[in-house]
Structures are given as C-alpha cells and as structure tokens.
Amino acid sequence: MVTLKGAEVSAKIKEEVQEILGTLSGEAPKLAIIRVGERPDDISYEKGATKKMGNFGLRVQSYVFPADISDTQFKAEFQKINEDPDVTGILMLRPLPKQICEKDIENMIDPEKDLDGISPVNIAKVFAGDRSGFAPCTAEAVMEVLKQNEIEISGKRAVVVGRSMVVGRPLAMLLLKENATVTICHTRTKDLKETCRNAEILCAAAGKAKMLDSEYVGDGAVVIDVGINVDENGKLCGDVDFESLEGHASMATPVPGGVGAVTTAVLAKHLVQAWAKRNN
Ligand code: NAD
C-alpha cells in the first residue's frame, strides 16, 4: 500500500503558489485569521496556518477577540477587516460563540476574500459545478491529494462518509464535478460497510476515531482520511484504521501527515488566487 503523504502534495502546491507570486509586484498577499476565544483547536489551526503562510512567503495577521464579544461589536470589527484593502483574504475560525450569528457573517463576508468558501455565493458555485469561486479548503485539499498523485477520478465510484457543509457535501460536489459517481453516507446510512466496500475512492469525514477498518475497504481502493480525532490513548488519529488497510487498499493518507497538511497549503493557494483575481 502506498502512503499518500500530505507534505509532498503541499510542496507541489507551494510551487504553484510561487509561480503565481512570481507574476505579482508589490507586497505579498495578506491573510487575516479571525479567532474569537481561546479554543485549543482554533489556536492549533491558527498556528499551522501562520507557519504555512510564512513558509510560502505570504503575509498573515491574526485578529483575536474575546469569547464574550457581543454580536454587534464583532460584526463591526469583522466589517473593518472585510473592507480593509490591505487584507487579501480571510479565514474565520468556527464555530463562533453562540451569541454571534454565524449566518450573518457568512452573508457579510466578501466572496472574493472568502478563502474557505463559507459565503452563499461560493457555496452556490461549488454546488453548481462552477469552479470560479472558493470551495472549502478541506474539501479542496482532498481533491489536491487525488490530483497531485494522478489518481483518476472520472467514472470512478467515490464514497464520501459525512455530509457536513464543511467537508462531506462540498467534497461530494467537487468529486461529481470531476465526473466521479458519488455516494454520500451519513449516520442514517443502513448499509455503510457494503457501500464503502464498493468504493474505488473512499473519503472518510465522519469525525469518529478509526471507525473504518479493512472490512470497509474494497481491494485496491484509494482511501482518503479527513478525520482528525484522538484515540483512547490520547493520540491523534483519523476516521480510518490505517494499519488495518495493508493488503486491502492500494493507497491511503495517514493521520497525522495527510490531508491536514494540504488544507493550509490550499488556503495559501486560495490567498494568491484572490490576489491575482483582484489585480487582473
Ligand atoms: P461533523 O461532525 O460536522 O460531520 C460529521 C458527518 O459524519 C455528519 O454528516 C455525520 O452524519 C457523519 N457521521 C458521523 N458518524 C457517522 C457514522 N458512524 N456513520 C456514518 N456517518 C457518520 O464533522 P466535520 O466538520 O465534517 O469534520 C469531519 C472530520 O474531519 C472531523 O474529524 C474533523 O476534525 C475533520 N476535519 C479535518 C480537517 C482537515 O483539515 N483535515 C478540516 C475540517 C474537519
């Protein structure tokens, strides 16, 4: 079984980013990371994204607000960042605290700065098969893993486990755009094992530690694990029991070291694309 390493995909995306950067003059594009509160998951993602932007030669600034900021106050702050001409793109860490209406922010964000595809305009484009907007970075990261490893998608049976708006649904749409035959599974799916076993490309985005083992994987399948979970020993793991796949899958992404590393590279790519669009 071939291990599909996120770092290798990220390095290829870096080349693409540098190619676009080479065509630009002036200051590097700037990413605004918006964080409300001190959730460890958010801080960890922010650190990873900040490091990646630095590594790719891009500017980044974090905007951190207290967890108890009011809806009105946050919206006023958000709008300042949204309208700041020095900010090329925005990553807002979610979920936001309950007192803030996330839907309103989704409607407010400038679609041209919406690097993680949360605005209705960008979501509609993903669902319409129009690739001119920004898709959610994680869903796009799965596509990059497949494409950069030259894994054929067209005509293949692809199964996505998970139907969230962040990963499962947009990923299913991106696979469909590439002419895969797509099945979406979720908590009410009755024949999950059989459905997964029938997949030629199996994408796991359920958020359940090691729930898919070799019994869910057909011979020669390509397995992409989006899950980020902790196992019973407190160790980071995916939705797939990676070790059990040997002798079953043809290729698989590990966790850590798989899709996660690619997600921030896609964010960087979206940032330079936003810059290029604005300056064209
Ligand atoms: P979510 O909880 O919003 O959605 C999970 C989906 O999986 C739901 O649609 C649910 O129906 C389905 N599901 C859950 N248990 C299931 C089961 N037993 N059988 C079948 N379907 C089941 O989670 P999410 O935000 O979509 O994230 C999914 C996973 O991806 C999480 O582990 C998350 O940490 C990870 N994630 C990774 C990245 C990355 O950069 N790699 C980014 C975002 C999320």
Automatic annotation (TrEMBL):
Taxon lineage: Bacteria, Bacillati, Bacillota, Clostridia, Lachnospirales
Annotated pathway: One-carbon metabolism; tetrahydrofolate interconversion
Stated role: Catalyzes the oxidation of 5,10-methylenetetrahydrofolate to 5,10-methenyltetrahydrofolate and then the hydrolysis of 5,10-methenyltetrahydrofolate to 10-formyltetrahydrofolate.
Species the sequence originates in: Brotaphodocola catenula
Single biological process term from Gene Ontology: purine nucleotide biosynthetic process
Domain (Tetrahydrofolate dehydrogenase/cyclohydrolase catalytic) ranges: 4-116
Transmembrane domains' residue ranges: none
Name of the molecule in the record: Bifunctional protein FolD
Source superkingdom: Bacteria
